[in-house]
Write a structure and sequence with these properties.
The chain is of the alpha+beta class. The chain folds into three domains: 116 residues, DNA ligase, ATP-dependent, N-terminal domain (DNA ligase i, domain 1, Orthogonal Bundle); 199 residues, DNA ligase/mRNA capping enzyme (D-amino Acid Aminotransferase, Chain A, domain 1); 146 residues, Nucleic acid-binding proteins (OB fold (Dihydrolipoamide Acetyltransferase, E2P)), CATH 2.40.50.140. It has 22 helices and 21 strands. The strands form four sheets. Strands 12, 13, 14, 15, 16, 17, 18 and 21 form an eight-stranded mixed sheet that branches. The protein binds adenosine-5'-triphosphate (ATP).
């Protein structure tokens, strides 16, 4: 199959923001794809080589990509860097470079060998897997080889993909739509395809089944140990009364632990997956061991929340403590000693060959309690089943006291299946009111902004907010603020900040973040957040509470008040934020 077809589809997709049009382009592409390579075509349209959970990353360093373009076109690297500064996108640089090459070569490109999807995928895969001595040269060679065969348009997308920056914004759901239409003639297949995707979230795999075996192949896709299942999510309602009513007057109420969601697949081998289906197995060897010890069956898939616990007091610790462990390559042993983790299990999705997701929750919970022998490290989510509002409120207070975020109510009726990938009212969360945690609003100064993506294209995606440090007379960043704005306000933001725009970071702004736009610190906004946390990225009160950390506001939201009455120097100070942080810690005990 010619790669040209993919490149042309990308270009059309980029030219529209309408989902239906996007779907149409994909349908055409899938229909002209031979079934045996449809999986590769699907991964490529997502800028990947495999399903995410396999963790194979395509992300060639910019400087290597520049070398490859230079090698292929004969244009010097420095000239290329100038072009990159001009265009800000190496894909466009590659496109222009190939155009130039064509203008200056007499060779007729009409006769050249066509670049195939197979070849592109093969070289991408070799680039992703190249390791060790000489691998950089090999990667350059592999990319240059593709560029030698590429048209300018193809070069644009090859380079973006290999850099891991394709970002066409095609949602998985759009691909599922397109697949259903391409292979079923309509969206009728959609529910089967979606179910398959929810229990086996690998679009390439599903597409191939569909293309080769038809809908029967898709219906035959089953839960498989080792392949993550998309997590079931919770809706929210503002009061326990409403939740109880919505649940039909009676429900299970479980502690809502504030840790990290973990899906454990336990058999001869063990896998742990995050809520976003990343493979976490190597980061939590202690959880792996604990699950192995607690599980009494052959093969099982469990859903739960991992929370760091103080081994002396049994107290649950805040989430940021456990986040230190994530992504950490070294010192896992030490992290395990410092922050031992308890896994609170709340569901079982699969047991010894049987899919349990279609059974009601009370039955699943019974099975869970039968096959798991609780230990110090694996426990069941604490819960009550109740129809008594005062008992539920009391239970909620206990949850907060015990360091949880609130409760998750769970439907106990016949309909209470495990709806993989869905956020519906079978589960409803109720969290502690944010105001209780942060106590008060803060007034922060806008010092920069980030370009919007998706629906926010053309305006700002978020503002970079700072607190004032009077001792140093500077503004120190504390959060990226993206919510709480009306659509109208959002659309108006670039205009509002136009006159404050400056080329570089303002000298009185201290930031470790690289904003897309910088402003003269002037505008003050009132912000409320969920809580104040330690932050490696923000500079607010850096090194004051903890060496190497600043403070950040978690889940900041604009209250709607522009504090035009305040000068930037009258904004909340870094010292005040330190106080608020300390009070919050005190409250948590
Ligand atoms: P939040 O930030 O509120 O956790 P979320 O979008 O990550 O939201 P939701 O499904 O909306 O996830 O809320 C439920 C989340 O709460 C789960 O993803 C899980 O991580 C966590 N959780 C903690 N305890 C439980 C429990 N007992 N049952 C289900 N989820 C729980």
């Amino acid at each position: 199959m010619e790669y040209r077809l993919i490149a042309e589809t990308y270009e059309k997709v980029e030219g529209t923001t309408k989902r239906l049009e996007m779907t149409d382009y994909l349908v055409q592409l899938f229909q002209s794809t031979p079934p045996e390579i449809i999986d590769r075509v699907i991964y490529l349209t997502q800028g990947k080589l495999y399903a995410d959970y396999l963790g194979v990353e395509l992300g060639l360093a910019e400087k290597l990509a520049i070398k490859a373009i230079s090698k292929s076109t004969g244009i010097r690297e420095n000239a290329m860097k100038d072009m990159l500064r001009r265009y800000g996108d190496l894909g466009i640089v590659a496109e222009e470079a190939i155009k130039k090459k064509r203008q200056t070569t007499l060779f007729s490109f009409e006769e050249e060998k066509k670049l195939t999807v197979e070849k592109v995928y093969e070289n991408f895969e070799k680039i992703a897997r190249a390791e060790g001595e000489g691998s950089q040269d090999r990667k350059i060679q592999l990319l240059a080889e593709l560029l030698n065969l590429a048209s300018p348009l193809e070069a644009r997308y090859i380079v973006r993909t290999v850099e891991g920056k394709l970002r066409l914004g095609i949602a998985d759901m759009t691909i599922l739509d397109a697949l259903s239409i391409a292979f079923g003639g309509s969206k009728e297949l959609r529910s089967f395809v979606e179910r398959a995707y929810n229990i086996h979230p690998d679009l390439g795999f599903i597409a191939k089944k569909l293309a080769v075996e038809g809908i029967e192949g898709v219906k035959g896709i089953k839960i498989q140990l080792g392949i993550p299942i998309r997590a079931m999510l919770a809706e929210r309602l503002p009061s326990l009364e409403e939740i109880l009513a919505k649940m039909g007057g009676r429900a299970a109420f479980e502690y809502k632990y504030d840790g990290m969601r973990i899906q454990g697949h336990v058999g001869k081998k063990i896998w742990l997956y995050s809520r976003r289906l990343e493979n976490l197995t190597s980061q939590f060897p202690d959880v792996v061991e604990a699950l192995k010890e607690a599980f009494k069956g052959e093969e099982g898939i469990f859903d739960g929340e991992a929370v760091p616990v103080d081994i002396n007091t049994g107290e649950l610790l805040p989430f940021q403590v456990v986040s230190h462990r994530r992504g950490r390559k070294y010192g896992i042993e030490k992290a395990m000693e410092d922050y031992p983790v308890v896994l609170f299990l709340f569901d079982v999705l699969y047991l010894d060959g049987e899919d349990l997701t279609q059974k009601p929750y009370p039955e699943r919970r019974k099975i869970l309690e039968r096959v798991i022998q609780p230990t110090d490290r694996v426990k069941f989510a604490h819960r009550i089943v109740s129809s008594d509002i005062s008992e539920i409120k009391d239970f909620f207070n206990h949850a907060i006291e015990d360091g949880c975020e609130g409760l998750v109510a769970k439907n106990v009726g016949e309909e209470s299946i495990y709806r993989a990938g869905a956020r519906e009212f079978l589960w409803i969360k109720y969290k502690k009111d944010y105001k209780v945690e942060m106590g008060d609003t803060v007034d922060l100064v806008v010092v920069g902004a980030f370009a919007g993506k998706g629906r926010r294209k053309g305006t700002y995606g978020a503002l970079l907010m700072a607190a004032y440090n009077p001792e140093k007379d500077r503004f120190e960043t504390v959060c990226k603020l993206g919510s709480g704005f009306t659509d109208e306000q959002l659309a108006h933001l670039p205009k509002k900040f136009e006159e404050l725009k400056i080329e570089k970071r303002h000298p009185r702004v201290w930031s470790k973040m690289d904003a897309d736009y910088w402003f003269v610190p002037k505008v003050v906004l009132e912000v409320i957040g969920a809580e104040i946390t330690l932050s490696p990225t923000h500079t607010c009160a850096r090194d004051v509470v903890e060496k190497g950390s600043g403070l950040a506001i978690r889940f900041p939201r604009f209250t709607g008040r522009w504090r035009d009455d305040k000068s930037p120097e009258e904004a909340t100070t870094t010292k005040e934020l330190v106080e608020m942080y300390r009070n919050q810690i005190k409250k948590m005990g």
